[in-house]
Amino acid sequence: MSTQSRFRNRFRRWTAGAVLLFSVVILVSLVPDVASAHNVSSRDASFVESNKGVAIPAFMYLGAKHMVTGYDHLLFLVGVIFFLYRLKDVVLYVSLFTIGHSLTLLAGVFGNIQANSHIVDAIIGFSVVYKAFDNMDGFKRFLGFEPNTKVAVLIFGLFHGFGLATKLQEFTLAKEGLVANIISFNVGVEIGQCLALTAVLIALSVWRRRPGFLEHSFMTNTLLMVGGFVLVGYQLAGYWMEQ
């Protein structure tokens, strides 16, 4: 292939990526709710606050629904498993995330540990930026070191769980059946996580068989990083507006 042809192909790829990136930014700008991944529908919120007693199936459903639609969590997990080819590695990293996620979700609700939800969600957005930058080998290229990814996934898992806890703390939850309901919600979150990750793994497996996977991985993680920065910016703006 001639130098001119290679330049044309590269230009087309970057142009397509720029158009996609611009579309994402415009979408988030026009629809602010898109950037608030912990939104709960009015119907779900009404149920949570009016519920009295144990409602295990309902709270499992709400937990699964929240994870499947919680794209901040999913974007981070996509980044985590993007270059994991062995199932045991996927299980290890997802387990670390689950441990951290579950600890702070339960501790935040039962221990009434509170923090500003915008700050917590901004850190969650930053976790997406971190993982995309790590996938792009940015730490080694620009900073000369590589962080311990396992520790980072566990720590960010703590923040992701705390993000869910801050949302639940906004509701007036009945004491009767609270333990069973919150545990059921957490189980539902993990079920939703498994379902979403299964779909992502299938899509990645198909994509990895194509010759363009590694070639386009840098652009994909660039877009992932931009999505994380959008989430961070939106949450920080919300925090400053509250002051």
Q: What is the 3D form?
A: globular
Mean pLDDT: 82
Number of helical elements: 10
Rg, Cα atoms, Å: 19 Å
Summarize this structure as a short list of keywords or feature phrases.
mainly alpha; 243 residues; 10 helices
Question: Can you put this structure into words, describing what you see?
Answer:
This protein has helices spanning 3-30, 42-50, 56-69, 71-81, 87-110, 117-135, 138-143, 149-168, 178-208, 213-242. The chain has 243 residues and is mostly helical. Helix 4 (71-81) crosses helix 9, helix 6 packs antiparallel against helix 8 (149-168) and helix 6 (117-135) runs antiparallel to helix 10 (213-242). Mean pLDDT is 82; it is low at 15-36.
Helix and strand topology:
Layout: H1 3-30, H2 42-50, H3 56-69, H4 71-81, H5 87-110, H6 117-135, H7 138-143, H8 149-168, H9 178-208, H10 213-242
